């Protein structure tokens, strides 16, 4: 039976039926895996934001009339109009990084939905440590974060 409230214990199923813990050793290894994936999530988010900043810095051409009009009236103009520059390789790479990071974030959320308090603590502490290590000095990044995942 699946728990619907937080519980403490070594018996937990995380994400898949095959990822079940029944001993303290397997439980702590699973918590370590959740912790490391959470830290990796913050690392990937940092890489994605830095990549976005780098791609913004390399765009030095003055905005065309369509782009300047879209800045003034953003609901009337599409981001997809006006040349092939919008579909450059950095944009695709950024989209791939966003997709990977979103997938990791949602998997972490689903792991927390096992309602095991140890898994919850491992993910939250992993996110905090990852933020401290990789994103604590983000003052130089002046990029609007567009991550829709609640795990960021």
From TrEMBL:
Family (UniProt): Belongs to the copper transporter (Ctr) (TC 1.A.56) family. SLC31A subfamily.
InterPro entries the record matches: Cop_transporter (IPR007274)
GO cellular component terms, A-Z: membrane
Compartmental location: Membrane
Name of the protein in question: Copper transport protein
Transmembrane region(s): 24-44, 88-109, 115-134
Gene Ontology molecular functions: copper ion transmembrane transporter activity
Membrane disposition: Multi-pass membrane protein
Transmembrane found in the keyword field: yes
Keyword vocabulary terms for this entry: Copper, Copper transport, Ion transport, Membrane, Transmembrane, Transmembrane helix, Transport
């Amino acid at each position: 039976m699946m728990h619907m409230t937080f519980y403490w214990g070594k018996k937990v199923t995380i994400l898949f039926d095959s990822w079940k813990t029944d001993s303290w050793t397997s439980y702590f290894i699973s918590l370590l895996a959740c912790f490391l994936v959470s830290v990796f999530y913050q690392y990937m988010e940092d890489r994605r934001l830095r990549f976005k900043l780098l791609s913004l810095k390399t765009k030095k051409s003055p905005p065309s009339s369509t782009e300047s009009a879209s800045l003034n009236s953003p609901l009337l103009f599409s981001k997809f109009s006006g040349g092939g520059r919008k579909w450059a390789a950095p944009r695709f790479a950024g989209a791939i990084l966003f997709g990977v990071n979103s997938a990791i974030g949602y998997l972490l959320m689903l792991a927390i939905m096992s309602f095991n308090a140890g898994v919850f603590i491992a993910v939250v502490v992993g996110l905090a440590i990852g933020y401290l290590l990789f994103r604590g000095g983000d003052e130089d990044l002046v990029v609007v974060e567009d991550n829709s995942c609640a795990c960021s």
